[in-house]
Amino acid sequence: MFLTNLLRSIIFAVAAVFLIFIQDHSVVLGATVLLVVCALVGFAGLLAILRREAKENFAASLFASVISLTVSMFLLTTNGFLGLQNTEGDLFLFRLLVAVFVGGLGLSELIQSFRAEAGDRLEFRISAALGILAALIFVLAPLNDVNAVGFLSAYFALSAAQRGIWLATPGKQVKNGK
Q: In this structure, are residues 56 and 174 in contact, taking their beta carbons and an 8 Å threshold?
């Protein structure tokens, strides 16, 4: 779990910093960042599976990777070939894809929390709650393009910070390979 958390923390932190400090908060930019993040998270999950790091939660890890890679392939198709614009339909599609991605990760982590050791159980549930709450915001809240990209960057920042704290917890030094 160490490699998965480390890679996700780095990926989410870089995406959050980029989205926070860039002036453009359009659907096109948000979809492009989401495409890169989904692809990297999906491949990082597959790398963890191949390294047999996720042996006790193989199905949940595979589910998170498949969701991430599916969303990235869909974004590559719509953003790359069809060309997303800043229309209401594209905003709806962007919000839906973000909800699927973060909700899928949240569901995966909730499932993993039931099989996790006592020290990791709460961390998995915090991470799952962040993802599920963000998915609900993207589905239920009336967001425009600036708000949608802002909430996406907030999710990335909170998730990166939570995972970084999880990795730096003193009781985890032996498990994290340090």
A: no
Domain boundaries, the chain: 2-167
3-state helix, strand, coil split of the chain in percent (to 5) is 85, 0, 15
pLDDT tens string 45-65:
888 888 877 666 788 888 889
Query: Which residue in this structure is represented by tokens 């425009």?
Result: 144
Three-state DSSP class for residue 53: coil
Q: Compute how many other C-beta atoms are within 10 angstroms of the C-beta atom of residue 19.
A: 22
pTM over 0.70: yes
Q: Are 71 and 97 in contact (CB under 8 A)?
A: yes
What region, left, alpha or beta, does residue 177 occupy, with left being phi > 0 and alpha being psi -120 to 50 degrees? Answer: left
Residue 52: strand, helix, or coil: coil
